[in-house]
Amino acid sequence: MNLKTKDIDVLLGNNQILKSIDINVKNKEFVGIIGPNGSGKSTFLKCIYRVLKPNSGTIFIQNKNLNNYHVKETAKLISVVSQYNDTQFDFTVLDMVLFGRSPHKKIFEKDNSEDLKIAYECLEQVGMTNYSKRNFSTLSGGEKQRVILARALAQKAKCLVLDEPTNHLDIKYQLQLMDIVKKLNITVVSAIHDLNIASLFCDKIYALKEGRVIEYGTPKEVLTRETIKNIYDVDCKIVESENGKVNIIYNPL
Length: 253
Ligand SMILES: Nc1ncnc2c1ncn2[C@@H]1O[C@H](COP(=O)(O)OP(=O)(O)OP(=O)(O)O)[C@@H](O)[C@H]1O
What we know:
This is ABC transporter ATP-binding protein. This protein is α/β, with parallel strands linked by helices and 253 residues long. 32% of the residues lie in helices and 28% in strands.
């Protein structure tokens, strides 16, 4: 599924948060959005998953204006793993994952054996099968994040939008989560803070600064010493590892 945005502007309060954002994500591409705190990454992703309406500009999914899709239809196309996933109700882990099936069901339609099968498969994919009966609220931050990924996988969407998906995860689970997502072989758009993780998994990267795209390209093209200095005001050394990926080694401030 391809995804494009054209001239996306967002104003919040008196501030222009996003300024004319154009992106072009091809079918099955894994695209990272990087940029400092407050640069507009989450705001942009919220426009894509329809929590926020841009003040101007258009989002195209499979070359059709997003506004012309029914909300439920959008949920079959795009699933989301966002930064904050607390719920006010204490559902079990299995229930949380089954919620991912709701775009495929009619109102009040009960979960069937196929839904349960999919939910258990997705829990297994993220290594959380043994937690299925636990209450979601009792899980650690990292465990919650893995359950939320399982819920997104259960949605069986063609595009996954991730907002800092590796928040709370230790390094093994950061790599595992990104690896699971990569192997889905679907279109992925992900805000990523860790530039080495971005380098390992992204096909393309958009770098945001103050609400504008200032760089776009492969990790090798974008993750240069100059760009990192420009965006984050941090000095670093770039080393190319044996697998051909760039590795960023930061200098202390
Ligand atoms: N409702 C709002 N009203 C006013 N300003 C807002 C609102 N929501 C977000 N902002 C501002 O918009 C800017 C962009 O926020 P956003 O969350 O998109 O940044 P981000 O790049 O995702 O940051 P982070 O890396 O910290 O998650 C921030 O300066 C934020 O304070």
